[in-house]
Design goal:
Copper amine oxidase, signal
C-alpha cells in the first residue's frame, strides 16, 4: 500500500464531481456507485501544481467567504478564535453540495447500504439452508459485491488505484469472515464462529493501519479500530437474531446500519482534514448534517420497505404474521424519525402532517404488493393512482414548509422515480426473480439524489 499525495489530489477531484452529480435530473445518474470514478482517466498532475491552481482563486472570493464566516459567528455570539473546533459551522458559510458535505453523504450512503445488503444476503443464504450457490443467494451476494466495488472505487478516487484495489481485497475478505460467522452460527459450529471472530479482529487492525496510511495520519488507526469493533458487534448480533428467527432481528439490523452513519462521518472528517483543498467545507456544518441525515433516513426507508415487503410475500400476504409485523414496526420507526427531522425544521404540526402522509404512501406500496402477489390488476391500478395522488400532496407540502424553495415541479419527478424503482423491485420480489436484489439497490440509490434536493431547499429556507 502506497500513499500518493499526487494521486489523492488528482483523483479526489473526480469523486467530488461525481458526488456533485447527485443532483442530476437524469434517471441514469448513479450517485453511489461512482462508475464515473472507475472509468475516468487519471491525471497525475504534480501536487504543487494542483495547489497553485487552488491558490489562484480570486482574492475577492476568499474575502467574501471570510466575511460570511465572521458574520455567522457574530450572529451566534461566538468569538473568532477557536470556534472552528468548538462549534459546528453554520449554513451561511457552507453548502449541502460542497466537497465535505458531498463526501460525507456519499460515504453515509455506501456504508449504510453495505449493512442492509449484507443482512439481506445473509438472510437469503439462511433461507437456502446455507447453499451459497443457490440462485437467489448468489444474486444477493452479487448485489452486495456491487456495493463493495463502489466503495473501492470511492477509496481509489481518493488514494489512487493501487490503494483502491487493496481496499477491495480487504473489504471482500471481511465480508467472507461474516459469512463464516453466519454459517458457524447456523450450524452450531463454535470453532468456525470463533475463527471468524479472530479473523475479523485481524481485519480491524489491517483496516485501521490502511486508513491511517492513506490519510497521512488524519485518521488514527486506534480510533477507527474502535468503530470497526462496534461494526462487528452490531452486525454479528443481528446475524445471531436472524439465525434464531427472532422478531427483533430487523431492529438489530437497523442498529447495525445506524452505526455506519458515525463511521462515515469519521472517515469523511479524516479525509477532509487530509485534503482540505480538494474537499472544501466542513463535515459538521449544518448543511452537511442535514444532507447526511436525509440521505441516511431516505435510503433506509427503501431497504426497510423492501425487507418488510419480502417478509409479507414469504408469509403469503399475511400482514398479521409475527415476522411481518416486526419488519413493519422497524420500517415505521424510520417513518417516525423522518417526521422528527421534518418537525425539527418545520414545527411539530408539520412533522405530524408529514408522518401521516408518509405512512399513507407506505400503505399504497403494500396495496401494490398484495395486488401483484394475488394477480389483482384493479388493486395494482388503484395503488398506482393513490401513489400519484401522494406525489402531488407531497410536492405541495414541501413547497409550503420551505416557502417555495422546493417546488412541486422539482420534487414530483423524483417521487415518480421512487415509485418506479421500488415497484420494479416489488414486481421481481413477487415473481421470485433474482433481479430483485439489484433492483432494490437501484431504488435505494435513488434516495441520495432526493436527499440532496430536499436538503438544498430546507437549508435555503432556514438560512
Amino acid at each position: 500500500m502506497r500513499y500518493s499525495a499526487r494521486k489523492m489530489l488528482a483523483l479526489t477531484a473526480v469523486v467530488s464531481m461525481t458526488a456533485a452529480a447527485c443532483g442530476s435530473d437524469s434517471n441514469d445518474a448513479d450517485p453511489v456507485t461512482t462508475d464515473a470514478v472507475a472509468e475516468a482517466p487519471v491525471t497525475e498532475a504534480p501536487a504543487d501544481e494542483a495547489m497553485e491552481e487552488e491558490a489562484e482563486a480570486p482574492a475577492e472570493e476568499e474575502a467574501m467567504e471570510e466575511e460570511a464566516m465572521e458574520e455567522g459567528m457574530e450572529e451566534e455570539g461566538m468569538e473568532e478564535e477557536g470556534t472552528e473546533e468548538e462549534a459546528p459551522a453554520e449554513a451561511a458559510a457552507f453548502a449541502v453540495d460542497d466537497g465535505a458535505s458531498s463526501l460525507r453523504a456519499t460515504l453515509t450512503s455506501l456504508l449504510q447500504e453495505h449493512v442492509y445488503l449484507a443482512g439481506v444476503a445473509f438472510e437469503t443464504a439462511l433461507d437456502a439452508g446455507g447453499d451459497l450457490e443457490e440462485p437467489a443467494t448468489a444474486a444477493a451476494v452479487a448485489a452486495l459485491d456491487e456495493n463493495t466495488v463502489a466503495l473501492a472505487d470511492a477509496v481509489g478516487s481518493i488514494a489512487g488505484e493501487e490503494n483502491g484495489e487493496a481496499f477491495l481485497g480487504l473489504w471482500r475478505e471481511h465480508i467472507g469472515f461474516f459469512v463464516d460467522y453466519t454459517l458457524g452460527e447456523a450450524t452450531g459450529n463454535a470453532d468456525m464462529k470463533a475463527q471468524a471472530l479472530t479473523d475479523l479482529e485481524g481485519y480491524q487492525q489491517a483496516a485501521g493501519a490502511f486508513f491511517e496510511e492513506i490519510t497521512g495520519g488524519a485518521i488514527q488507526a486506534d480510533v477507527l479500530v474502535g468503530g470497526l469493533e462496534e461494526h462487528v458487534a452490531t452486525l454479528t448480533t443481528a446475524i445471531d437474531a436472524l439465525v434464531a428467527g427472532e422478531t427483533d432481528a430487523f431492529d438489530k439490523l437497523q442498529a447495525a446500519a445506524q452505526h455506519m452513519s458515525g463511521a462515515a462521518n469519521l472517515l469523511a472528517t479524516g479525509i477532509v482534514e487530509a485534503l482540505p483543498d480538494t474537499f472544501p467545507g466542513a463535515t459538521d456544518s449544518q448543511p452537511a448534517e442535514v444532507r447526511s441525515t436525509l440521505t441516511f433516513q431516505l435510503q433506509e426507508h427503501v431497504y426497510l420497505a423492501g425487507i418488510a415487503i419480502e417478509q409479507a410475500l414469504e408469509a403469503g400476504g399475511d400482514l398479521e404474521a409475527p415476522a411481518v409485523q416486526a419488519a413493519v414496526a422497524t420500517l415505521d420507526g424510520n417513518t417516525v424519525r423522518l417526521s422528527e427531522t421534518v418537525a425539527s425544521v418545520a414545527g411539530e404540526e408539520n412533522g405530524e402532517a408529514f408522518k401521516g402522509l408518509w405512512r399513507e404512501h407506505i400503505g399504497f406500496f403494500v396495496d401494490y404488493t398484495l395486488g401483484v402477489a394475488t394477480g389483482d390488476d384493479e388493486m395494482v391500478a388503484q395503488a398506482l393512482t393513490d401513489l400519484e395522488g401522494y406525489q402531488q400532496a407531497a410536492g405541495a407540502f414541501f413547497e409550503e414548509i420551505t416557502g417555495g424553495e422546493i417546488t412541486p415541479d422539482a420534487l414530483i419527478p423524483g417521487l415518480e422515480e421512487h415509485v418506479a424503482t421500488l415497484t420494479a423491485a416489488i414486481d421481481s420480489l413477487a415473481a421470485g426473480d433474482t433481479a430483485a436484489f439489484t433492483q432494490l439497490r437501484a431504488a435505494g440509490q435513488h434516495m441520495p439524489m432526493a436527499a440532496l434536493l430536499l436538503s438544498t431547499g430546507i437549508v435555503a429556507a432556514i438560512s
